[in-house]
Amino acid sequence: MLVTMKEMLAHAKKNKYAIPAFDISNYEMMRAVLDVCEEERSPALLMGLGVDLSGKGLPLISSMVRAASEFYTVPVCFHLDHATDLASVKAALDAGFSSVMYDGSTLPFEENARMTAEVVKLAHAKGATVEAELGHVGNAMVGNENDSTENEDPEDTLTLPDEVVKFVEITDVDALAVAIGTAHGVYKKTPTLRIDRLDEITAVCDRPLVLHGGSGTPDEQMQQAIAHGITKINIYSDVVGALNTGLKNKLATIKNPSTWPVFVFEEARERMKAAIREKIRVFGSNERV
Ligand SMILES: [Zn+2]
Q1: Which of 20, 56, 111, 136 would bridge with 107, disulfide CB 3.0–4.6 Å?
Q2: Distance between Cα 177 and ligand 1 center (Å)
Q3: Is 217 in a helix, a strand, or coil?
């Protein structure tokens, strides 16, 4: 069944674990996440993102996840990742997403707060929950194969605790993504999380906190972040990397061009499932349902 992110994160916060949130781009990724969550008895937090949602992508992926959720006994949430405009938020809510992220983190504080408040009104009216971002989680290397942007210096864009208090007051947002030293994509150098800053934020904020850029961050650092108040960690690169490596390996061994996709995806599926299982166990969301 489909649930909101609010109830999932409330349980995680209370019991001091984090739920890995997986962006899924297609059926194979969705299937791998749901199957492993069922095996591990972990809440399943799936997200839709960017180009995957263009055109009919949005209603089709949403329909697929909602229909699939009926075949699993663990709770499933489908969350819109990184929307930057109201139109995509509305489209996602209409298509049945149970949660949305509005990302106004590159806007000035007031504008981010004003827009987030608007999204919260829209989403709450439909029984959906909202994540926003304060401070800015930049990009390491993500997405297309020619993108080789250097790591930004995350120090400039860390979340400020005073702003968190004001932001929650203005917006009544359900969950907040904070910038404490991670980046999106594949790291060129290992990040060092600012646990001290996280402590300052949890001291003044009662909402569940979210960490973006979880792929490639060392396990001990993520477990430390969880112990200090992070309840949702976004994962994309690690799983899509497993998918692509598995496909590449398997295709190199296949002679028959009309081999069934179910065999072509064999190694990709195994690698994705292993990556997903590892995150679930490291974050402690296994055996929670
Ligand atoms: Zn993100």
Answers
A1: 111
A2: 8
A3: coil
For the stretch 163-220, pLDDT in tens is 999 999 999 999 999 999 888 888 878 888 999 999 999 999 999 999 998 888 899 9
CA distance 78 to 22: 10
Of 97, 61, 54, whose CA–CA distance to 79 is shortest? 97
Find the 38 Cα to ligand 1 centroid distance in Å.
Answer: 25
Strand-pairing partners, residue 79, are 47, 99
Cα–chain center distance at 85: 18
The residues annotated with a catalytic role in the active site are 81
- Does residue 191 sit in helix, strand or coil? coil
- Structural domain spans, the chain: 5-140+152-236+273-283
Q: How far is the CA of 136 from the centre of ligand 1 (A)?
A: 10
What sections of 53-106 are H helices per DSSP? 57-69, 86-94
For the record, the structure tokens of 201 come out as 């934020």
Q: Is 114 exposed, middle or buried (0-12, 13-18, 19+ CB in 10 A)?
A: middle
Ligand 1 center from residue 184 Cα (angstroms)? 6
The yes-or-no verdict on residue 151 having pLDDT over 60 is no
* pLDDT recorded at residue 154: 55
- Distance separating alpha carbons of residues 272 and 246, to the nearest angstrom: 8
Query: CB within 8 A of 129, min separation 6: which ones?
Result: 4, 5, 6, 98, 99, 100, 123, 174, 175
* All residues with CB under 5 Å from ion ligand 1: 212
User: In the prediction, which pLDDT does 186 show?
Assistant: 82
Q: For residue 212, how far is its CA from the centre of ligand 1 (angstroms)? A: 5
Distance, CA of 52 to CA of 108 (rounded, Å): 28
Per-residue model confidence as pLDDT tens digits over 174-186? 999 999 988 888 8
